[in-house]
Amino acid sequence: MSDEYQLDTKEYDSLKTASSKIFDVIAKRLNVQTAYITKKGENEMTVLSSLNKYEEIVPEDFTIDYKESHCRLIINKEDNTLNTNNLMSDELTREMKASAQLQVKGYLGVTLKDLNGEVFGTLCVMDRDEKEFDEEDVEFLHSIAAILSHMIELDQTNYNIGFMNVPIIPTTQGVAVTPVQGIIDEKRADKLLNDVLHHGMAQEIDHFIIDLSGLVIHGQEFPRVIEQLVNSLQVMGIHPILTGITPDIAYREMDSMNLSGFQLKTVPNLEAALSYIGFQLKEEQNSP
Fold it and tell me: Residue 195 pLDDT > 60, yes or no?
């Protein structure tokens, strides 16, 4: 998978579980105090998982500006490796803010990628003492990074499987609701179109409420499948109503104007959609 799947750091359960076990192996093999994995964000590096044997040097969830991090050097180097026996005296790292913060010497870091070769972050080790890492040590850490790439793939796959279903909620005769959640890739787009249109026909739906509050948009493009879904429903004589349009979705739609050609009703939430159709949601009240 590629960087289109921007999960929150809390979503990488498999990677965290695997790394917590592998860190012990790494620490013994390289004789270091600390091992950790970072995830690259737009402008920062975040520590996803870490091992600190004797003292906490790199806590989990620690964040540093990408430009100020050693990770930038690792990722940008041709061999995807930063190897120094002393961060504090190395010409490349001694003036860096991260070096001053960490106050460590021995350091070895390699780029961590997903199975498509896209940069995920880094896998690094460090120690208070000076350390000489040889070619075998570097190759060892790269091999561990390759293993962890499979854990990244597993977490990204599990994340999207969670959104593969297209829930369709019947509310009352002739009205149905479908919440659109997560990132809509090509496979999910086909399933969304197929399930909604077939349900609309089979159940003789008059109004289909499409809730976009859980939609995740990657990049700048508004998902074309929403335009296709709206168009197809209208061709079938079904009235689509969009709810849950977030500021991010509105911003992307303003750029693309995919829905501007449709006579389309948009409302802020489900209650407003049902009210527009002619129904009201009422709380049950107990008789005094």
Answer: yes
